[in-house]
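hi! just following up on the protien thing from before. the input was this:
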Amino acid sequence: MTDHAALKKKVEELAERVWDGSAIEARVKKLSTEGIPKKKLSSKELLADKQQIIDRVQRRAEEYNFIARNCARSSALAVMEEFGFGNLEIIKALTPFPGFGGTGWMCGGVTGGLIALGLYFGRDDLLDFEAAGATFMAARKFMTRFEGTVGAVLCPKIQEEVVFGRYMDPGASLENMEAFIKAKGIEKCSLLPGIGARLAAEIIVESLE
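and the predicted 3d structure came back as:
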């Protein structure tokens, strides 16, 4: 069951957070210049550090959204950075995905999380149906958890019920975007990439159990 009170409390915390913009921007610039560092993952260490990992991924996705202003890119980047896979071409391709092309459909925290899971569980071999099946199962688990946590997967409903009390539709016009920014929409909507990244990271770690 969705805890709307807890979500709204988190939204207000994000609105009032003192963001270390310089440090976040420096980290983003380093990733942009050097790429995502590859990692040799230890199942034992990941399982032992599960709580720390998912907390860190959530925080980083929130921070990346604050500085980059793109929930889809931010959620995917936080997961990819944590586990050391993917590249910046994938992040670039996610640029139009907040609100599913700004249309008010799928939340970028959902699309970014799904992309991260696809990269982790999927394989280059198009005929590897076992990997495809595992990816679908991870995706279904993710969708169920996201909707259960947030109460919705579409931007209008999320904005109305969780973030603002109404749908602001920032992509519709310059005036809407200005109103969105004035209402601290960048800060508040960081909730969603944080949740998407956290759930994706949680599913990745759980797959090692």
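The chain has a mean pLDDT of 95.
The CA atoms of residues 99 and 131 lie 28 Å apart.
cheers
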